[in-house]
Each structure stands twice: as structure tokens, then as C-alpha cells.
Amino acid sequence: MPFHCRDSLPRLAPEPAWNPSRMATTFTVQCFQLKGRKLVPDPPKTARTGDAAIELAERLATLKAGVVAFSQEVDIETDAYDEPRVLCRIGTLPEGLFAEQ
Length: 101
Prior knowledge:
Blueprint: H1 5-8, E1 23-35, E2 38-41, E3 45-47, H2 50-60, E4 66-75, E5 80-81, E6 85-91
Antiparallel strand pairs: 1-2, 1-3, 1-4, 4-5, 4-6
């Protein structure tokens, strides 16, 4: 039976308002493969929305050792990133990756 992130995670509160001319949200899916005893990251994949990132993570989880989907706010003018917000975790992930949120 496939695992679905939406089944285990509560709905998150809406994002606070921000200045759209300066801030943007990125949605990223990071997969890991098991090579021997090591988890090796694949190149990250981007998504347009949080829901799309979760759906992509769920699809990729059937092929990978571990998958995490997360969002980050980025200040376009300064290229400064806020702390990542985990949307979905599936499978085996490296220790300490996005300390439990």
C-alpha cells in the first residue's frame, strides 16, 4: 500500500503575507539513493506548488530510498533564504536532515 504524505501530516497554516516584488517561495524535492551503506543525494527537483512537490515526492518514493519535499522563502533582491519548511518525508533520510520540525 503506497504511503501518502497527506495522510500523516496536518494541514499547515497559510503562509504569512509578504511583499511579492521581493519575496518568492521555492518548492524542492530531494531524493536519496542507497549506494552500499551510504545515502547519496540525487540532483534536486523543483515544483511549482507545495501540492505538486508532495505529489512528486510520493511518486519518486517508489523508486528511491528516501525523499523529502520542502519549501523555502527567498528574498530575490539579496538571494537570502529562510529556513526550509518540510512538506513531506518518506523513506530513509540522512541523519539530521532538516532536524525534526
